[in-house]
Write a structure and sequence with these properties.
Four Helix Bundle (Hemerythrin (Met), subunit A); Methane Monooxygenase Hydroxylase, Chain G, domain 1; 28 helices; about 75% helix; about 700 residues; elongated; two-stranded parallel sheet; 2 strands; mainly alpha
């Protein structure tokens, strides 16, 4: 009961700091434009078709924020047009129109294996088929309606390409900056002082980055990875505080040296805190990292020379290990912030214009992934079957009850039914509440104002802006405004606006009940086996790191193998991302600590990105000749990733950090690219983070 009350209360919680009014206005402009154009041409149905197409792409851009791949945006636009075309052709034959929902629903259900954005594209294809494809007509009429929907969608795509929308996550960035500032202050505090303050600050940043509306966003992932590193650094600072307390007894003269090294770390973290808050400002964190590196090298030489007493030697060896780890974390946070700052200054919301995914090897990998999931225990397969069954039940029930606008029932099923119960419950509750609010708003606006075409256009612009503005702040409110937007659009083709709004509310409620019952009859595993999916990701990363390092070290270059392993690693990451996204929606009593799984996911993303960078540099000729130390490092990295893939947290006899230090002399050779040391350092740090998390 308490859980249900929390879900209901959460539906009305609006995070005002997450509102994005400028983004909402710019995203809504194409919807308003195509709607006004259709009305100016005296074609109300055409106006509605184009505006719905633009609205659906706008929603995909919000789901895929901050960057939506161009190929997915175009695929959505074309797919919507094809769905409307097929729906219009078959709507004159109800039995055929219903049968076509079987392959469409199954394909939409299986799309969840490719990621959240692709799953939304599948749902939208069903929506277009049901809502706009219900008008019977000739082949010419079908082509006309399909073209209008695609045209409206492509106008939205063009707007996303041309317009530079402002950076987002200002509130989240400020929390991350506060966490780093607290961490810097804690670095040099007295050993007896509690770490509660910095831990609370890190937890605060973690909370604002854990909203479901942000999950899957590239900028959110980068900020989340920074917090994961900050949490690790806090543990190292706490351990060093204990070592400083012991040094004060054994050899107090060494405290000043350790304090100087920690001051360098603190100054670097302070600079990085400023960089998060002010991305355009020049920064000097690398000077602090270099100063720390010099201290570590000097301490390493003194330890090797035996300059300390036996007890001090033991303690300073431990101090060296933790300072070395802090150096890696400082560099990792710095690199993440620099990349994130560049993205922020370019403008966060935009289309990713790189085109890919259509070559035969990629198509083959997609088919292989589909084949792997064609089994009863696959979450995607069970979801696809449930979706088909639920849609058919919805269509049949709407026909049996003779509902005046029965197409809203399967429409609601397609949007509410999810692969797991927790997301289904949260999203279903949010959509029903939002529909109730949105239908009421639309009924009042249209029923009281009786708007002309001009006033309808203004209402569309205002409501669309509000809907897209509130998307990152509250799902229920945003979906309610989207409902109001659709009903206002449809009001230009019907005279019974109040009846339409009431029918929409009743049909969505019925669809939500059908979706919930269908899931309960044949549910998926409540835990979704997240750790197994992440283990598969790390195993795939091991293979990818292996083939890329073989190429970068001049041992063996197999372009086909590199491309194949890259694709496999990418899809394994997408599967893990989807699984962790579902885990975040599980009840707190059953999901354990989702931040551990989120941290593992972010570690995998860092390894994937860095390996991509090494691959592309090797392809441009930036590679080195191998040495025994570099081969040992490659073997250690691959072996450790395999261990993580098997769920083993113990590091091999030669740890990744030790192997990296053993190879450092080779990084200074003339034939070794300067970037290789930085990239391998990042991979080592990410692997150590994953090992730390998996042991919890």
């Amino acid at each position: 009961m308490n859980s249900d009350r929390r879900i209901f209360a959460r539906a009305f919680e609006v995070n005002l700091q997450s509102l994005a009014p400028v983004t909402g206005l710019i995203t809504a402009a194409p919807v308003m434009l195509v709607f006004a154009l259709g009305l100016w041409l005296h074609d109300p149905l055409g106006a509605v078709s184009m505006a719905v197409g633009a609205n659906l792409v706008a929603v995909v851009s919000l789901v895929g924020a901050p960057k939506l791949p161009l190929r997915l945006a175009v695929l959505d636009a074309v797919g919507l047009g094809i769905s409307v075309f097929v729906g219009t052709l078959t709507s004159g034959h109800p039995w055929l129109h219903t049968i076509m929902l079987v392959p469409l629903g199954f394909a939409a259900g299986m799309a969840v294996i490719f990621g959240q954005t692709q799953a939304v594209l599948g749902s939208q294809a069903i929506v277009a088929y049901l809502v706009l494809g219900r008008f019977g007509g000739s082949a010419l009429t079908a082509v006309h309606l399909g073209f209008l929907v695609s045209a409206g969608a492509l106008v939205e795509v063009a707007a996303l390409l041309v317009l530079r929308l402002p950076p987002t996550l200002r509130y989240q960035r400020s929390k991350v900056a506060n966490a780093l500032a607290s961490l810097a202050q804690y670095a040099t505090t007295p050993a007896e002082e509690s770490a509660f303050g910095v831990l609370a600050s890190i937890d605060d940043a973690q909370r604002v980055l854990s909203q479901m509306s942000l999950f899957g966003r590239n900028d959110d992932r980068d900020l989340g990875a920074i917090i994961v590193q900050a949490r690790r650094a806090r543990l190292d600072f706490t351990t060093l505080a204990g070592l400083r307390a012991r040094l004060a007894i054994i050899d107090p003269t060494l405290l000043n040296e350790v304090h100087s090294a920690l001051s360098a770390v603190a100054e670097g973290v302070t600079q990085l805190s400023i960089a998060v808050r002010r991305p355009s400002r020049s920064n000097t964190w690398r000077s602090s990292a270099s100063e720390l590196h010099r201290f570590i090298d000097d301490l390493q030489r003194r330890l090797e020379a035996g300059d300390f007493s036996d007890d001090a030697q033991t303690l300073m060896t431990l101090v060296l290990a933790h300072l070395d780890a802090l150096g890696g974390q400082l560099r990792s946070i710095g690199n993440l912030i620099e990349r994130e700052s560049v993205e922020t200054q370019r403008g966060a919301w935009r289309l990713d214009v790189r085109w890919g995914g259509l070559d035969p090897s990629h198509v083959g990998a997609n088919i292989e992934l589909l084949r792997d999931n064609m089994r009863r225990d696959s979450i995607a397969f069970r979801h696809a079957v449930r979706l088909v069954v639920a849609i058919l039940i919805a269509v049949g029930l709407a026909h049996w009850l003779n509902l005046p606008r029965g197409y809203w029932v399967p429409f609601a099923v397609a949007l509410i039914l999810k692969p797991d119960y927790s997301t289904l419950l949260h999203r279903g509750t949010g959509r029903v509440i939002g529909t109730m609010l949105g239908a009421s708003l639309a009924a009042v606006l249209v029923g009281e104002l009786h708007p002309s075409y001009t006033l309808s256009t203004v209402l569309v612009g205002v409501v669309a802006t509000l809907a897209y503005t509130t998307w990152p702040a509250n799902f229920s409110v945003s979906i309610g405004l989207v409902t109001a937007l659709v009903l206002i659009l449809l009001s230009v083709t019907t005279n019974d606006s109040v009846g339409t709004a009431l029918d929409r509310l009743l049909d969505v409620t019925l669809g939500a009940v059908i979706a919930a019952l269908t899931y309960l009859v044949w549910p998926s595993s409540p835990t979704n086996d997240v750790r197994q999916v992440e283990a598969s990701m790390f195993s795939a990363l091991a293979r990818y790191v292996d083939v890329v390092l073989s190429s970068a070290l001049g041992t063996e270059h197999d372009a086909a193998a590199i491309s194949e392993q890259s694709r496999i690693a990418h899809f394994r990451f997408a599967a893990a991302e989807t699984a962790v996204g579902r885990l975040l929606e599980e009840p707190a009593s059953t999901r354990g600590d989702p931040q551990v799984e989120r941290g593992l996911l972010l570690s995998g993303l860092r390894i994937l990105r860095t390996t991509h960078a090494m691959r592309f540099e090797a392809e441009r000729g930036a590679f080195s000749t191998t040495t025994p130390a570099l081969e040992a490092l490659r073997h250690t990295l691959v072996h450790t990733l395999d261990q993580i893939g098997r769920g083993q947290s113990d590091l091999p006899s030669l740890s990744p950090r030790a192997a990296y230090r053993g190879a450092q002399p080779d990084f200074s050779r003339p034939d070794c690219p300067a970037s290789m040391a930085l990239n391998l350092d990042e991979i080592v740090n990410a692997i150590n983070t994953a090992s730390h998390l998996i042991s919890q």
